[in-house]
Amino acid sequence: MTVLTVALKYLRGRFVASALTSLSVALGVSLVIASGLLSRGIKQGFIEGTTDYSLLVGAKGSPTQLVLNVVFRMDVPTPNISYGTYRDLQDDPRVEVAVPVAMGDAFQGYRYVATTGGYFAALPWRRKTFAISQGRFFRDDPPEQPAYEAVLGADVARRTGLRVGDRFHEGEEMAEYPLTVVGILRSTDSADDRAIFISLASYWQMNEVSRKMQVKPLTAVLVRPKRMSDLAGLHRGFNVTAETQAVFPSAVLLNIFNVLSLVDEVLALLLVIVAIVVLLYLFVSMYSATLERKREIATMRALGARRATILGIVLLESCALAVIGGALGVAGGHGVAYLGASMLGGRGGPVANLFVVGALEPVVFGGAVALGALAGLLPAVLAYRTEVAENLAPLS
Amino acid sequence: MTEVPAAVALHGVKKAFPLGNGRSLDVLNIEHWSLPAGRCTVLTGPSGSGKTTLLNLIAGVSLPTAGTIAVHDTNISALPEPRRDRFRAQHIGYVFQTFNLLSAFTALENVMLSMMFAGAIPKPEQRRRAAEILARLGLGARLTHKPQQLSRGEQQRIAIARALANHPPLILADEPCASLDAGTAREVLHELLSVCREAGTTLLVVSHETAVLAAGDQVVDVTAINRPEYRVGAVERV
Ligand SMILES: Nc1ncnc2c1ncn2[C@@H]1O[C@H](COP(=O)(O)OP(=O)(O)O)[C@@H](O)[C@H]1O
Ligand SMILES: [Mg+2]
After folding, report:
1. By the number of CB atoms within 10 A of the CB, which of A126, B33, B118, B159 ranks highest?
2. What is the ipTM of this complex?
3. Is residue A357 scored above 80 in pLDDT?
């Protein structure tokens, strides 16, 4: 027998109390792990899902709304800009690439994104790559003869069950304009997985308002300048007009992160409170277990156990509870984070892969064990100081 | 009693318990007393006369107010605490009136715990030896039982096995049969005496039972070895 086996046997001897105490540690740890993983996953999701175009031109209004809507497909669509804006950009000598996008309605919650083939183009500076897993991209059809072809994001295909060749529409009034699935994209780990891509011509014809418009509408234009030094000039140019604004998606992302970091701070405060509650619970549990055992402690001393041995037993008990609870909590936290991520993902929120091994788990686990040692310290000292002669006799 | 070497020798031993505000309760004042080695000595005396206090002093569980206590020529009360604990683990077995078994542990583990504290018996041998001692006391079939699952007589046998675990030359037993019915008490006592006699262990047993008094090699009344003024019991002093 060793001090550790003695400690573990004592824990098993009061199984229900030990299990409950470990469970409270596990709940606390899983809360910390889950919120840590989710907040990291959401941030990472925003970073990975962001566009690789350096400038976004859209209608005047909130820059955040424009980025959330055009890049992450969240929030409500911004007002339209005219197709002329796209033309101007295309003709601008400072612009290398300009891609028009128009946000349409949705099919079963998945938004129609009208654009040109340029949206999927592989360019040397692009981090994002689009690949077709089935079928082909839609054709850039002339405005008078829309082909009503649709390319589905990976999630859309998986969730709706639509396959290449299927025709679909939503609502009675759209029955006149059914779309045909011509291709399905490979997953890009971004909001594009939850989009239905169609040509601008199809979009303009499907939409009652734009059908009658002389100058066709767009939601935004993605812009890449030839030289980064022209970025500021372009930005200024589109902001001085009455209708348009130009935003840097990366700057808006920083703004979003600032808001998220405020949430993180509130969360950190909550987690500190959770840690204190767990610490107190562990302490009370160990303290009462020690008080109940004064006679057994005195007996062990009378059999020749040293004070340090008694101290070690109580400390190890407390640490073992924290180790068991910590391990359960790390596992449970991953489970909770997984559930949370799939809930967020289902609502279109950007969440990156959660299961990247990071410093979070070892740090939280180590913290839990340290908490266990701290909670056991006072009870261990109480055990250490137990008077032998006075506690050997039966309690009268 | 003088021709036998002493297992325990007391010189000028005093024990007083402080009662607060300058008062104290004087319990023991023993000028000279020695316990013959390898014999069974029965200690008697009225309740509150200091029998348990004397056993605790000999075990080094509490310290005398004055004087020296030598156990096998080691001045136990002068040892620093960790060494006193180790000495007690290796040289003294203690049996209590209330058994004091550890409830989270089996019979076997209760005995092995004693070995762990003494650190004298190599680990691989501990289990085998513990089982052997328990079997010798008739508990061969109860090794994996917890104290709560056993009768009072069986519990006290485990406590005796635990006291014998490290082959101590001295066993202190404080009213070991007082919590047992008369029949069981006789059996357990017989067991304790015969085990000690077999191994040549010195036994100091506190008891009032006539059977014990008859079986011991000598009977000592604690009031007789105490200073005359304590013979009526503890004295309160300012
Ligand atoms: N820790 C203590 N503090 C104060 N008084 C004590 C303490 N331990 C024992 N006593 C007193 O010392 C006397 C002797 O006690 P004890 O040795 O237990 O007697 P016995 O075992 O002979 O019945 C009693 O009067 C008891 O109340
Ligand atoms: Mg007593």
Report:
1. B159
2. 0.93
3. no
Question: Is residue B50 within 6 Å of ligand 1 at its C-beta?
Answer: yes
User: Quick one: tokens of B175?
Assistant: 């009213």
Partner-chain contact B85 A296, CB within 8 Å: no
Whole-number Å distance, alpha carbon A95 to ligand 2 midpoint, is 100
Closest atom, ligand 1, to C-alpha of B53: 17
CA of residue B225 to ligand 1 center, whole Å: 17
> Are residues B127 and A15 in contact, defined by beta-carbon separation less than 8 angstroms?
no
- With helix as H, strand as E and coil as C, how does chain B read? CCCCCEEEEEEEEEEEEEEECCEEEEEEEEEEEEEECCCEEEEECCCCCCHHHHHHHHHCCCCCCEEEEEECCEEHHHCCHHHHHHHHHHHEEEECCCCCCCCCCCHHHHHHHHHHHHCCCCHHHHHHHHHHHHHHCCCCCCCCCCHHHCCHHHHHHHHHHHHHCCCCCEEEEECCCCCCCHHHHHHHHHHHHHHHHHHCCEEEEECCCHHHHHHCCEEEEHHHHCCHHHCCCCEEEC
Contacts of A13 in chain B (CB under 8 A): 103-105
- Among residues B107, B219, B202, which one has the least CA distance to residue B162? B107
Buried b (16+ CB within 10 A) or exposed e, B75-85: ebbeeeeeebb
For the ranges A28-42, A191-205, A254-268, B81-95, the one whose mean pLDDT is highest: B81-95
**Per-chain residues with Cβ under 5 A from ion ligand 2:** B 52
Tens digits of residue pLDDT in A33-83: 999 888 888 888 888 778 888 899 999 999 999 999 998 888 788 899 999
pLDDT (average), residues B204-225 = 90
B42: its two tokens = 């029965």
Report which of residues B199 and A173 the model is more confident about. B199
